[in-house]
Amino acid sequence: MIASLGPRNLARIRSALLVARCTAAAILSYAVADALGLGHPVWAVVSALIVSQETARETRRSFLWRGAGTLIGTGAALPAAVLLMPDPAHPLTATGAAVAICAAIARRWPRMRVCLWTAPLVILTATTDHSILYTAAQRSGEVLLGGMVGAAIHLLLDYAVIRRLAQNWNDRDDATPMLPASEPAQPEVPASGRGRH
Prior knowledge:
Layout: H1 7-35, H2 42-51, H3 56-84, H4 92-108, H5 114-124, H6 132-175
């Protein structure tokens, strides 16, 4: 049914969906992160946009890998910061240790490369005003929230558009007048045989 729209129309629909998804994801992820009081809503926006892929299946997979990488990066940053960063003004040793751990993991599982920048993101945004645990929860919360918003918008928007296309297609089929079934053709009787019994 959808495939019968033709490749040119499908390409236009996909392009329009990508624009709509990205726009909605950027706005909504920022609004939600800001409403929740997260310190750096920009990371929610970035994550929402990175997660959006061409298909809903790819978006879901991207979100799952991004979520796993975020948690690993946060998990590497916490002990490194606690053990090697007594003062947030001196983050280099902790950053180096956390990135080394994450690089070893990303080497084995390339789709978790987000852990490479999550770890320094947590460490380098730490302040004396809050504990490292608070900072880690904020940064990973921003990234995970953005990813969830991006994935949810993709799934919901695609679902709504596909339903709408299906409904329009059914409405079009319902509006097409049915042609009466033709009666079976009667065999021709030769003229010379008419009237004889």
